[in-house]
Design goal:
The complex is a heterotetramer of chains A (325), B (617), C (553) and D (292).
Chain A (H helix, E strand, L loop, with lengths): L1 H27 L4 H8 L6 H10 L7 H13 L14 H36 L8 H10 L2 H15 L19 H38 L2 H8 L4 H19 L1 H19 L4 H10 L3 H29 L1 H5 L2
Helix pairs in contact in A: 1-13, 5-8, 5-13, 6-8, 7-8, 7-11, 8-10, 8-11, 9-10, 10-13, 11-12, 11-13, 12-13
Chain B lengths: L10 H23 L30 H37 L1 H16 L2 H11 L5 H12 L1 H15 L2 H9 L3 H37 L10 H10 L2 H4 L2 H29 L6 H7 L8 H13 L5 H17 L9 E2 L8 E14 L2 E14 L3 E6 L5 H8 L8 E12 L5 E5 L5 H7 L4 E4 L3 H4 L6 H12 L5 H14 L16 H13 L5 E5 L7 H18 L2 E6 L2 H7 L2 E6 L2 E7 H6 L4 H12 L5
Parallel strand pairs in B: 1-11, 4-9, 4-10, 7-8, 8-9
Antiparallel strand pairs in B: 2-3, 2-5, 5-6, 10-11
Chain D lengths: L19 E17 L2 E16 L3 E5 L6 H8 L7 E6 L2 E2 L5 H8 L2 E4 L13 H11 L5 H15 L6 H4 L8 H14 L4 E5 L7 H18 L2 E6 L2 H7 L2 E6 L2 E7 H6 L4 H9 L3 H6 L8
Parallel strand pairs in D: 3-8, 3-9, 6-7, 7-8
Antiparallel strand pairs in D: 1-2, 1-4, 4-5, 9-10
The chains are: A mainly alpha (325), B alpha/beta (617), C alpha+beta (553), D alpha/beta (292).
Membrane topology (chain B): Multi-pass membrane protein; Peripheral membrane protein
GO molecular function, one term (chain B): ATP binding
Keywords (chain B): ATP-binding, Cell inner membrane, Cell membrane, Membrane, Nucleotide-binding, Translocase, Transmembrane, Transmembrane helix, Transport
Amino acid sequence: MKFLLRKVMLYVFIAWAALTLNFLIPRLMPGDPLVLLMERTEGRLDPGALEAMAEAYGLTDAPLVVQYWDYLSSLVQGDLGLSIGYYPVPVADIVAGAMPWTIGLVGVTTIISFLLGTGLGVILAWRRGKRSDYVLPALTFLNGVPYFWMALILVLIFSVNLGWFPVANAYQPILVPGWNPEFISSVIYHAILPALTIVIGSFAGWVLSMRNMTVTVLGEDYVTMAEAKGLPRRKVLLRYGARNAILPSITGFALSLGAVVGGSMLTEVIFNYPGVGYTLFQAVQNQDFPLMQGLFLVISLAVILANLLADIVYIFLDPRTRAEA
Amino acid sequence: MKLNSLWPASGKVRAGLIIVIFFVLLAVFGPMITDYAPRATGNPPLQPPSADHWLGTTQTGQDVFSQFVHGARVSLAVGFIAGVLSQIVSVLVGLVGGYFRGIADEMLYILTAVFLVIPAMPLLIVLTGYLPTRGMISVAIVITITSWAPAARVLRAQTLSLRNRDFVEAARATGESRMRIMFYEVMPNALPVIASGFLFSTIAAILAEAGLSFLGLGSLTTVSWGSMLYFAQNNQALLVGAWWWFVPPGLAIAIIGAGLALINFGIDEYANPRLRTGKSRRKAARPAGRGSAAMSSTAASAAAGAEASSSSSGVSEGSLGGTESTETTDDDASPPQIRGSEVPGDPVISVRDLIVDYPTEDGAVRAVDHVSITLHRGELLGLAGESGSGKSTLTNAITRLLRNPAEVSGGEITYHRSTRTGESTEVDLLNLPAEELRAFRWSELAIVFQSAMNALNPVLRVSAQFDDVLRVHRPGMSAAGRKELAQEMLHKVGIDPERVTAYPHELSGGMKQRVAIAIALVLEPDVIIMDEPTTALDLLVQREVLEQVMQLREEYGFAIIFTTHDLSLLLEISDTIAVMQTGTLVEYGPATDVYSDPRHPYTKTLLSSLANLGARI
Amino acid sequence: MRTTRTIRYTAGLAAASLVLAGCGGGDNGAAGDGEVQPLTIHANDGNTHQANFNPFASAFLAGTRGFIYEPLLISTPMQPGEPIPWLAESLEWNDEGTEVTLTLREGVQWNDGEDFDAEDVAFTFNMMIEHPSTNLSALPVESAEATDDHTAVISFSETAFADEAAIGNTVIVPEHIWADLDEPTEFVNEEDPVGTGPFELDQLSDQLYILAKNEDYWDADDIEVQEIHYPALTGETLTTTLAAGDLDWSGGFISNIEDVFINQDPENRHNWYPGGGQITVAMNHEEEIFEDVELREALSAGIDREQISEVAMQGYTPPSHPTGLPLPTYDDAMASEFEELAYEYDPDLANEILDEAGYEEGSDGIRVAPDGTPLSWELAIPSDWPDWVDISQLLEEQLAEIGIAVDPQGISHEAYIEARNNGNFELTMAAIPVGLTPYDLYSQMMSSEYAPDDDSDAVNANFGRFYSDEADEALAQFRNTEDDEEQQEALEELQRIAVEEIPYLGLVQAPNWFNYSTERWEGFPNEDDPYALGAPFQSPDNALTIRELTPAE
Amino acid sequence: MTTVPTTDAQNGPAAGAGEVILEARDLVKDFRGKRVGLHRQRFRAVDHVSLQLRRGQVTALVGQSGSGKSTVGRLLAQLMPQTSGELLLNGQPITAHRGRAFIRYTSTVQMTLQDPFASLNPVHRISYILARALSIHGHAKGAEEIEEKSLALLRKVNLTPPERYLRRFPHELSGGERQRISFARALAAEPQVLLADEPVSMLDVTIRKEILDLLDQLRTEENLAVLYITHDLGSARAYSEETLVMYRGEVVERGSSADVIDNPQHEYTQRLLAAAPNPRRRLSNPGEEFRG
């Protein structure tokens, strides 16, 4: 439990760092979001109103510490400020509308591609030296393909040419969201292509790292011993090889998850998927700084949380860390 | 560390280099061969590829090929700059943190963790969103901020493992300064990691630049692959079918990413030879028979560290055999001294004229050369020999655990199975079908590995490691029965049966070795191969374990092949001794005879060395 | 295994429902069973809708103005000088132009059943005083009061004849709701917004909102549209949706509109892009070098506006008119002497002018001013505006022909605005909005009203900082009279200044993006019947258009 | 501190002919251990160890792994600070863990490490390794002198012809050769004390003797004070004058090597000796096979 506690502390710190980074970026970077607000309101704001608005965005002349305190206390109340692009809609509302889509899409695809990738990685490791090794360069290539380009190609083939899948939206716009089969099937149908993009774009990385880890583990004495024990190959591979090889993979989750989230953001843009990626993209295009920051914060916190979960899973899978408790 | 030539052997690295070089050349010279300025308009719009426009034209009549080659410059430059910058940061953070440890390291570690966990792309987008100008350099710097962390983490781990290596300690003892140790001793060994990190950051930077430009966050007045895609997307190139506009830049990014990744692959394989595939693997193959006991601890630490420098010890093993022989007394000329065995009992394993070869580029290396031995029921056969003598290869051949590319090129190994009627049937071990081999293993021949810490699966409880065997070989046994048996076996080797639920890391070294012995005994096999079972143990523990083994042998009556380089130990415990030198059996006979009357010069040398070193011979 | 089957099943189901939906779409055109089809509109890009029905907010959802909230009198650039009575039946000025008396329509109700009266009007104008952020047209409101149920009097602190259109276009909000708000601009107003308009909010999801006809609307008989659908579409999906024929009325830039949209059903699908302002190169007149009108002339002659129109704007929008008037929008205001005038691309003439004026070519082919300043300027533009990027590249090529080096610099939108507003540029690109009248247009081009003051260097119009006494006089003349002829006279003087002084280098007209399909609904404005600007985000013009729509035969 | 049984006088053997160069008095080294609650357990690796290294004499420090013998070596080399106790170099107390003082110290006291395969940096050629050692201690300047001295060093450790070795990388050499290079590097400082940490434990039996002979040779030729750290009682008996036996951080027995090993007093030493493989044992009882 001490191990877990230490991890939690670390992630709490990281979360705090993300909060602070989020606070500092707009203050350290050049530029002034108010200029944009002025532009957006076509200059009709009088100085008083402008000042009030600046205060609403936390851009005051108050000492940084005071600003920081205000920032933290409004965060605690779930107040992320008002969007500039959708003024005066609260950022928190927009984020809350976008999060479920991304969590659904990225969550499900990450799990699928992790399972697919590690499974294939184990198989490739077992078949090392066989013809299946020739798949590796292809996987390397897949691993290098930019998500957004993959998405473009998939759209070109499956939506534009074949017309099998829609190119946009999370569901048929005409439907009213609800837990009815029609809506749910529409959601799934619309998610297939974006999900496919993310899976294709990310699973190769899992395959390659899992293969490498498994190959390394398969050289360990305990695997040889398992073989000498006369265990069936499958058992040797899974219980001794993969079981140990998957541990570093889970640790590597941090690295990969960030990349998947990044890639899925671009994917959302291509598919006009109403998740945080697309919303962030629009925020950037609208120079909607409060929204940008709110999204960044929420994405970061989500990834941090996912990492913490991965670490907890790790604790369950590796008795050695448990013992450290 | 030495590269034999500048042209790498690995096909992957070659392919990767060719790709990268191609694009670099394209970026450098491409703009010279294009007829059009990248942004010059005025050509017919949206033309498919033709002789005039190799990759067609854009909506505004710009030449796609020209944009493509100019874009290559920007993409590669951003990638390169960001790659270099992020490696500088990660080298500083990783090396300093890993080397100095302490509070600085803790801070840097947490800083690294922060940047590692905070997703890069959103941070990148937010940072870029605030950038007033979006030139190549500022984009590269922003990318650096988001991409240094993974390499720094790897580098820190690498430095942590390197700083505990003896050569660092030795350099300190010599009087080298910390700076010098960091940058001249530690860093060169981390070069593969740094190179790999550089390639990784470069790929990430190229992708990030493309992604940013594609989102319209790059500088659209600069032609890059990303901005090409942005304009293509903005002008609905997809819908009007102008594939020539968006396929080349995306494909190029993918290919160059793959190219860099292939080089990275090569580096990984170089650092961790186990990963090799196909040709490069064969090439790297080395006669493991020459891998020695003394060597294996380095090899193990190498594998654990999984770092490049350690592969040097791998390389060394091949060359070592050659040079080592200059030091050892070379008595190849002397004929083997084989004495008849006086061990009572029927043979259980007989090896006849066994030959094991390791094919290498310079022809096959013979690791075991016409070796014949016979193991009788209940016999303790001591197999002695120094590094590279082939004793492990011999036992691996018997257990059918020879790893590729080693192969048996001649001879036979026979197992004499005793049937219920007391008769014995002969089993050709080398040609045993897979299923029969599986059934044979452990129930008739078990193994105790050299290092029990590595031979027990770290993530399974001791009970589960007993269970594995029992489920397969005693399918009828109940779970309770299995547990009872496991506890009984633990009791037999002197371990508290309650520890059956322990994980290996909760046991001491000696206990782990006992557990390994208990697992080997659980099916009451006829033969147990013990491969240096006590080498890794302290003298006192070694003695206890040995006593335990001897007791159990009396109780169960199994035969043992006991390999070690410690001849004096063998002389004390074994019935028969076989001495191997460079693959051949040089002396074979009853232990007492070999001791009192060594006949082969090599055996004599060994014995006299022992005496000289103060052993009680 | 089970998962796979489930997915396949649901995918099949979804595909089937799509096919059905597709069939339904096919039936739409026929409209055989007498049921009225919804009107589907795309007005603002965005792949989700953020609920916002506040007519004073900067990001209200389309339809808020015009369909839910209504103005007093409708002024459109297409019918200048003739405000159309709406919630008010008439508007009377006092002689000084400091007070208007509004006579309101009777029998108008808010859609929650409350009566609409003069108190609401007075409240709305008084709110502008209390909350300047709701004063969208910067009206110099001093006070407002209801003299009886149907009469409201608004007084202004200065002569406000020029603001007549803006006063008329002010949308009125219900006092009984808005009076309770602390900060009206932060009111999202997402639940049953209460307006007087022909439509009310029916349902809202993040991908679609529906407005349904207000059956108690004061002009309900003229409204045939029963339901308006606003699906959430982005630039990319807009194109595919347009191509599929699912939109009746849309705005926004569509690349290759001919191929993507019109050619698939030329009978019913149309676009009409009347000028809605112009895109210009702004020269910073505070820089000494641009005081030379000959240089300005030469620059203007050295720009090939046809090419910019064809290549960068894909021919959607014609070159600017030298008077700066967007056409045909302000056709009526055009002085007869300029009717035939057009920009001519004449690099030879430009070179000649420059040679004579002493701008000699340096060794690098770049001209140098007599005082030694090289004619080499950065052209800062927002890096993410692709059409402007294209224009800037064309300018670079074209001006190189006359020995002038222009170096396009893509910067962030924010940095661009900062530079433009604060005058930190030599050349930049700027859009001049159409305004409600030509007066608005010209005051944004040359009024000294937009000059840096003691507080700040920033201006929010007339970014080129072109100030001239003649122009200020003409603008004052327009502002201080109600007389149409006097106003026209002033406008013609402003046109002359624009043509002769070249305050801005007009490039192309900024189009009012408007695509429509008559497959289901007819009656949209068009070149032959330009009664309103057609872009669906254009209010209050949208209120005029909706009244004209009838189901297709 | 428990009383240490000695076979001789309390302060070392009579054979202490040479002058004492390096002396340790009551060295203690604690390591931070696991944290238990708020307290971090301390683990005492070295517990009040005193010893003297004399010119021209080999002192053996014998113990099993974890006994703290290598830690004593590192403390003597000043590679880590002691928790308490004192080091005297030529009679002067000295503390030199870093900076110039440390470098000066290393020019007197040098250490070689156990693993010949790991103690040479694989990326550097032998020439670099020796050249660094020479130039750190200022015993050679300029490429020519450095090369000359390097060759001399190689000759000193019996690597002939030395030219053959200079350009090589460590991995091209055998274990024995590498250990010789380690000695050469140590000798480059022209030290008075050589701390040899398990110099032969990772080498094949046949090579061990050569290396130990070399150590002995260097002791005489260079008149070095040598600390021979080993787990092997036999070789300590054969190659050292004085032997200290360590157990759990304490010296449990000390005396002349012959006495300690032939006539051990401490129970631990006795157990160690009994555990060592001994073929004679079964010859003396031919009837009885090996039994516990």
